[in-house]
Design goal:
The complex is a heterodimer. Chain A is an alpha+beta fold. Helix content of chain A is 32%, strand content 25%. Chain A is globular. In chain B, helix 2 links the parallel strand 1 and strand 2. The chains are: A alpha+beta, B alpha+beta.
């Protein structure tokens, strides 16, 4: 919402899209995949941890 | 077809939707084939949208409206995008739902509508500054289950 030109956030119902969940190795929820697998953040983490995860994924 | 939302839930949602600020427009994409939850997801979207005059809904098909689906990066059915209309233009907020938002996800969906309506993410100043500074696209896919 802060930058829709650059950021898209999608809620994916894992049981309806099992192939995608398997592709990203989702074994517990919530599991956030960044840029199609460049990074992963597992769990309902604090906002700052998600930002760190995004920053790390952008370096990959 | 009977309603998915019972009277209690309907009155609760009506109450929280009274706090809605700006209008929100939902783009729904279904698919004619191989979509077990499309019917139910569409019905759920329709029932929710009916609970506030600040909400509107367009129903599309991933295949029949392929060009539009591409324009909004919609590739899953059922899928929804939270947007709003500015004049005649649809403004994308970058919020997507893939699959039916039922169970726990239903309250997230209602919360997301409220956030979208306030045009305010509620994020910290530092996070907002970081997101504004992005020079490369970021896609977040949050895998969830309804229970």
């Amino acid at each position: 919402m802060e930058n829709p030109q650059m950021v898209c956030a999608e809620m994916v119902e894992a049981t309806e899209f099992p192939e995608l969940a398997n592709q990203f190795g989702v074994s517990g929820v919530p599991h956030t995949t960044i840029n199609n697998g460049k990074g992963h953040v597992v769990g309902a983490v604090p906002e700052g941890d998600l930002v760190l995860g995004i920053q790390k994924a952008l370096l990959n | 077809m009977s309603n998915l939302l019972n009277e209690d839930i309907v009155s609760q949602i009506r109450e929280v939707f009274e706090k809605m600020d700006q209008p929100v427009h939902v783009l729904f994409f279904g698919a004619a084939q191989n979509c077990e939850y499309c019917g139910e997801a569409r019905q759920l979207a329709e029932e929710v949208i009916a609970l506030s005059d600040k909400l509107s809904l367009d129903v599309h098909d991933l295949d029949a409206d392929a060009e539009l689906a591409r324009a909004y990066n919609m590739d899953k059915a059922p899928g929804m995008a939270l947007t709003y209309k500015d004049g005649g233009q649809i403004v994308d907020l970058g919020i997507r739902y893939a699959g039916i938002p039922s169970g726990h996800e239903f309250s997230s969906f209602i919360q997301d509508i409220l956030l979208a309506s306030g045009r305010d993410s509620g994020l910290s100043a530092a996070t907002r500054a970081f997101l504004k500074s992005l020079t490369a696209p970021v896609s977040l896919q949050v895998f969830v289950t309804p229970t």
